[in-house]
Amino acid sequence: MPRIVTGEGALYYERQGVGFPVLFVTGLSGFASFWHEQVAAFSRKFDVITHDHRGIGQSDPTLSGFTVDRMAADVIGLMDALEIERAHIVGHSTGGAIAQILAIEHPKRLASVVLSASWTKPDAYFRRLFNFRKDILLRLGPSAYVQANTMYLYPSWFVARNNERLRQLEAQHLAVFPPTEIAASRIDAILAFDRTEQLSRIKTPTLVVGAEDDIITPAYFSEELARLIPGAEIKIFPRGGHALTQVRAREFNQAVLPFIASHTPE
After folding, report:
1. Which of 147, 165, 152, 148 is nearest to 242 (CA)?
2. What is the rounded distance in angstroms from the CA atom of residue 26 to the CA atom of residue 64?
3. Rg of the chain, C-alpha, whole Å
4. How far apart are CA 241 and CA 219, in angstroms?
5. Domains contained in the chain, CATH given
6. Contact status, residue 23 vs residue 80, Cβ threshold 8 Å
7. pLDDT digits (tens, 9 = 90+) for 9-36
8. How does DSSP assign the chain, residue by residue?
9. What is the pLDDT of residues 31-72, one digit of tens each?
């Protein structure tokens, strides 16, 4: 089981493929397995690294340090431990918030940035949604929380067509669900995230990706990111929901692969 040791415990990671490094950083769930559709496609041409966030999955349990800044520091720690000087970063949702911090604070470590279904700062809609999700977790427990996540993450038509598969995924997620305190602290971390005023400092080539029917981070967040980051490109899919990396995996990969390839050093 590959793990790197930080000052606050060990982080589990997976690595596949050869070539220039691409780090895929997942969202609120925190599991490396979120990227299975991308690992298969990108590892044919790149050195693909994913990891379980602190306190999640096969990384060491911890009840402290749940800020987006701390999660970003973990990614730098992972790069250092694996002796990766520079990489592409593909961040989804919370992973996109992490990628924003890396692009602002560690630009020399990045060849390109992809922000998938991410956001700028919490607005009234975002706060209502995530406080409600936290209420479900604290009042009804992990099982209800995981089932509700399916309804938030995926479009209605996708749930209808893939109900049994999604039930299996719910069971798998519930089997490794972190302590409630950790899950709640992660929600608090994203509610506190705001680097909007610093986005104009990002000079790394950036691609922003979103979906019109995303109800967790609506497309207007992606549009705002693209407007505030100098030179950013944007791709909005008409359908795909929040989990567009899975729902529209082929189209997502076809949008991202050429972008990072065009910014891969010789």
Report:
1. 152
2. 19
3. 17
4. 10
5. 3-121+195-262 (3.40.50.1820)
6. no
7. 789 999 999 999 999 999 999 899 999 9
8. --EEEETTEEEEEEEE--SSEEEEE--TT--GGGGHHHHHHHTTTSEEEEEPPTTSTTSPP-SS--SHHHHHHHHHHHHHHTT---EEEEEETHHHHHHHHHHHH-GGGEEEEEEES--SS--HHHHHHHHHHHHHHHHH-HHHHHHHHHHHHS-HHHHHHSHHHHHHHHHHHHHTPPPHHHHHHHHHHHHT---GGGGGG--S-EEEEEETT-SSS-HHHHHHHHHHSTT-EEEEESS--TTHHHHTHHHHHHHHHHHHHHT---
9. 999 999 999 999 999 999 999 998 888 898 875 668 999 999
The one-letter amino acid code at 245 reads: T
- Nearest of 103, 94, 75, 66 to residue 188 by alpha carbon: 66
Predicted local distance difference test score (pLDDT) of residue 5: 79
Q: Are 206 and 113 in contact (CB under 8 A)?
A: yes
What's the pTM?
0.96
At which residue do the structure tokens 């604290």 appear?
A: 138
Cβ atoms of residues 119 and 221 within 8 Å: yes
Contacts with 154 (C-beta within 8 Å, 6 or more apart), sequence order: 162, 166, 241, 242, 243, 247
What dihedral angle (degrees, nearest 10) is formed by the CA atoms of 94, 100, 101, 105? 160
Dihedral angle of Cα 63, 64, 67, 71, to the nearest 10 degrees = -80
What's the pLDDT tens digit per position in 214-255? 999 999 999 999 999 999 999 999 999 999 999 999 999 999
